[in-house]
Amino acid sequence: MPWAIFLAVAAVGAMLLLPRWWAERASYRSAQIAFKQGSQLAAEVEEEPEIVPRESYRPLPPPARPYSSREAILARRRRTLTILLGGVIGSLLGWFVLNSLWMILLNLIFDALLIFFVVLLRRIIIFQHNIRALREYPPEQYVPATNQQPTVRVVRAG
After folding, report:
1. How big is the chain by its Cα radius of gyration, in Å?
2. Could you say which of 37, 63, 71, 121 would form a disulfide bridge with 67 (CB–CB 3.0 to 4.6 Å)?
3. Would you say 82 and 19 are in contact if contact means Cβ atoms under 8 Å apart?
4. Core vs surface per residue 123-152: b (16+ CB within 10 A) or e
């Protein structure tokens, strides 16, 4: 049972967190590559360092290469597909978890029925023992039974 709860939490976490992380990582990686290419181009040209105003703490990085509209559309599609893929994976994990929970519930019901019938069978055996004792021995030998024993106990005289 605890592993099913763990799987449910993992599935919800994967469905909610993984696509966002993946999309952010993909967009950050492409921006990082563009930034490195831009800084390499600036190093090749060997420009004079830009004078930064005194109020800023560190120089601003060179602007990244601007995206074309086609690249922006492809990046948006990639993020959308990543989110949809994460949703599908999360849904499948959730489906498996729900199926396993359903099977656990059925197993518990089956076990409860099995225990009920075992207890019922035990009571039937005790009842048969009582009837047999009532038929075989005279009434003066009957003694009330203690707990978890047949209700009629035979005491032998002598």
Report:
1. 39
2. 71
3. yes
4. eeebeebbeebeeeeeeeebeeeeeeebeb
- Winning range, highest mean pLDDT, from 14-18, 70-74, 113-117: 113-117
User: What is the rounded distance in angstroms from the CA atom of residue 123 to the CA atom of residue 115?
Assistant: 12
pTM above 0.90, yes or no: no
User: Above 80 in pLDDT, residue 125?
Assistant: yes
Backbone phi, psi, residue 67, to 5° = -80, 145
Instruction: Encode 63-91: b = buried (16+ Cβ within 10 Å), e = exposed.
Output: ebeeeeeeeeeebeeebeebbeebeeebe
CA distances from residue 57 to 53, 60, 61, 62, 81 in whole angstroms, order as listed: 9, 9, 12, 16, 39
Residue 42: count of CB within 10 angstroms of its CB:
14
